[in-house]
């Protein structure tokens, strides 16, 4: 979820109720703010919000059903997750490719922080910050090319 996402806000109370009921279902329910954890967003290949995953014994399935408390409970109690195709091996959050994707999301977060530092803290003009990143990209490319 993300704090600014209206669909996430509409579902928040239902999700909180589901989390409270989770102890009776013998499951753990959680939520991740993708603005605070961009690496997980990349690892799970989150492209829409809210995105819901079911994980059991290291097998991940994306939940695409209705988003009511009863449907969440039925998904677990009636083991409806068994009829859902698991996430493909190369897209699994534990795969090497998704580890790399998470790393790219972390790098983009660092770049954003550096840009904010340059423009906000140091007072450098936005276009100068862009020029610094362009120059750094070219230099890194030349270095790697050697």
Automatic annotation (TrEMBL):
It is found in: Endoplasmic reticulum membrane. Keywords: Disulfide bond, Electron transport, Endoplasmic reticulum, Membrane, Redox-active center, Signal, Transmembrane, Transmembrane helix, Transport. It holds the Pfam family Thioredoxin. It comes from the Eukaryota. Its main location: endoplasmic reticulum. SUPFAM superfamilies: Thioredoxin-like. This is TMX4 protein. Residues 1-76 form the Thioredoxin domain. The lineage of its organism: Eukaryota, Metazoa, Chordata, Craniata, Vertebrata. GO terms for cellular component: endoplasmic reticulum membrane. The chain crosses the membrane at residues 122-144.
């Amino acid at each position: 979820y993300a704090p600014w996402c209206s669909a996430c806000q509409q579902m928040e109370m239902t999700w909180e109720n589901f989390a409270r009921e989770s102890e009776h279902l013998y499951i753990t329910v959680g939520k991740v703010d993708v603005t605070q954890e961009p690496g997980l967003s990349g690892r799970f290949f989150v492209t829409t919000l809210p995105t819901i995953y079911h994980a059991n014994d290291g097998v991940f399935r994306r939940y695409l059903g209705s988003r009511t408390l009863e449907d969440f409970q039925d998904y677990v109690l009636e083991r409806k997750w068994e009829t859902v195709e698991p996430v493909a091996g190369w897209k699994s959050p534990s795969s090497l490719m998704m580890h790399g994707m998470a790393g790219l999301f972390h790098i983009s977060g660092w770049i954003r922080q550096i840009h904010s530092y340059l423009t906000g803290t140091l007072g450098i003009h936005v276009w100068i910050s862009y020029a610094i990143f362009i120059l750094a990209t070219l230099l890194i490319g030349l270095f790697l090319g050697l």
